[in-house]
Amino acid sequence: MNSQRGFSLIEVMVVMSIMIPILGFVLSGTRSVNLAVVKDDAIAASLESLQRSVTRLAHIIRPGSLGQYRMVALDEDVTTGLASSAGEWIEPRNGVRRESIQFRATDGRLSMNAVNLSAPRVIRFLLDPSEIDNGVDDDRDGLIDEGRIMMQYDGVEVALVRNVEQCSFELNDRLLTIRIRSAARAREGRIQRFSIEEVIHLRNN
Amino acid sequence: MIVELMVFLGAAVLLLSGALLSAHQHAQQRRVHSERTLALTACRNTFERLRSLDVATIAALDGTGFDVPGIDGQPNGLTPTAGDADGLPGMIRVERYRTAASGTVYLVTTAVRWAGATRGGRFDMQCLIGSRR
């Protein structure tokens, strides 16, 4: 006689009643972990992208000539007599942060100490069309007063970095500090902000 | 019957534990990567600051600490290891590498030691610094 037998309906019901809550718990846990991983990956990707952009920006500015470095004038500079109008390019002052700068650099075909310099290049922060500089998220995408960092050279203007909330250039003697703040959507819809600071020693006079 | 059920439950618990452990390790690895990036950026920025100094003053900076800004740009982005003398995770080490008539070349190391996502992190960057001709 065969000693093996199948499961009875009651046995299967008992096992199912135990396993279904466990499986539900596992699936729920896995789903939330997956969601968290995807969002964290999105943040990590945004941060990495921003870091690459800032490094690229630093490479562009590094061969810049200190003597040719200029910052954009604001209304306060007009008031203090440092500029005749806002938007004019003026001599930099130590410790003053500005969103736009102009410089001339070695053109890359000659050595870093070359006398020949490029035509003026401009790096400026440009607010997105859907945003107003008011400290509010006007387009409801989670970013406040975001825009792009643009570069003008040889009559061409290109966007170097996008989704930037703040950008500043600060010169202290030969050290130029670039600060950029961006953000990405994190878990549960909250916005994770991150800042990157890159310091460049401008070696060319 | 009880034995079969126990085996089945045991397997389910193992699977669940494996999935959670995997997710935890994934998150930890990402945190380690993020911390190393902070350390790298701080070391690179420290070198840029050193380059702007007079070479004659470089040797005096041996043993000086430096901070590592966090992801939000604020100070104290990384926690120094226990027993750190100056409470700063970064440290500058300067060694005389070569001396010639034209001047001295220093081997400068910027090192970061921190208590982070794992047992602890370490990052070193080295550069030769001499007077510019």
Topology of helices and strands:
The complex is a heterodimer of chains A (205) and B (133).
Chain A: H1 9-61, E1 70-72, H2 75-79, E2 89-90, E3 97-98, E4 101-103, E5 121-127, E6 147-153, E7 156-172, E8 175-185, E9 191-201
Antiparallel strand pairs in A: 1-2, 1-4, 3-7, 4-5, 5-6, 6-7, 7-8, 8-9
Chain B: H1 2-51, E1 65-66, E2 90-100, E3 103-114, E4 121-129
Description:
The complex is a heterodimer of chains A (205) and B (133). Chain A has 205 residues and is an alpha+beta fold. Chain A has helices spanning 9-61, 75-79, and strands spanning 70-72, 89-90, 97-98, 101-103, 121-127, 147-153, 156-172, 175-185, 191-201. In chain A, strands 1, 2, 3, 4, 5, 6, 7, 8 and 9 form a nine-stranded antiparallel sheet that branches. Chain B has one domain. In chain B, strands 1-2-3-4 form a four-stranded antiparallel sheet. The mean pLDDT of chain B is 87. The termini of chain B are far apart. Chain B has one helix at 2-51; strands at 65-66, 90-100, 103-114, 121-129. Chains A and B meet through helix 1, strand 8 and strand 9 of A and helix 1 of B.
Sketch the topology of chain A as an H/E string, one letter per element. Answer: HEHEEEEEEEE
In terms of DSSP E residues, the strand content of chain A is 25-35%
How many strands, which pairing sense, and closed or not: the largest β-sheet of chain A? 9 strands, antiparallel
Rg of chain A (CA only): 28 Å
Question: If you compute it from the alpha carbons, what radius of gyration of chain B comes out, rounded to the nearest whole angstrom?
Answer: 23 Å
Oligomer type: heterodimer
Low-confidence stretches of chain B: none
Number-wise, the strands of chain A total: 9
Distance between the termini of chain B: 86 Å
Unreliable runs of chain A, pLDDT <50, ≥5 residues? Answer: none
Biggest β-sheet description of chain B = 4 strands, antiparallel
Give the averaged pLDDT of chain A, no decimals.
Answer: 86
